[in-house]
Amino acid sequence: MTEKNQQNNEQEEVGLYGKIISRTEEIMDSGRKNLDEALKKAGDELSSAGNFTREQTEKISTFVKRDIQHTVNNASKGKEAVKGAVDPKRIAVGAQSIFSKILTNTAETLGKWAKKSEQHLEFKTGEVTSPGALTCKNCSEVIHMTKTAKIPPCPKCHKTLYRKTY
Question: Among 19, 119, 123, 133, which is least packed by CB within 10 angstroms?
Fold first, then answer.
């Protein structure tokens, strides 16, 4: 392969990367697909249009997914790692948008799960519960249930909402 052909191939792959990111973002915006499905659909559409081969779109889709996963994995390393990972000098604006949506969706999902989990740990005066510790949600007083029994009002503040802390 001549140097000129190699440069053209690199430019074509970089262009394809941007197109896959852009189309994946559009598909995910519609809310009908997860990342894997959106990447596959974007690649299928671009290869079906005849501009790129299926092998090219699969190859570049792998790179896009790798970069997204890398950014998500680095999110746990702190705010500065995320800022560096989505720096405009490193990644196209389309990729940043996808990363932002993934992180936002993940945060929303985790928030919903936390709320559901908290609801399952919430107990009220008058309910029957098994042995364990209950912490008053108003004053943080802990009562220890030594046997299965009805939950009394808080002995300190007389409120009726507890969190099971076992």
Answer: 119
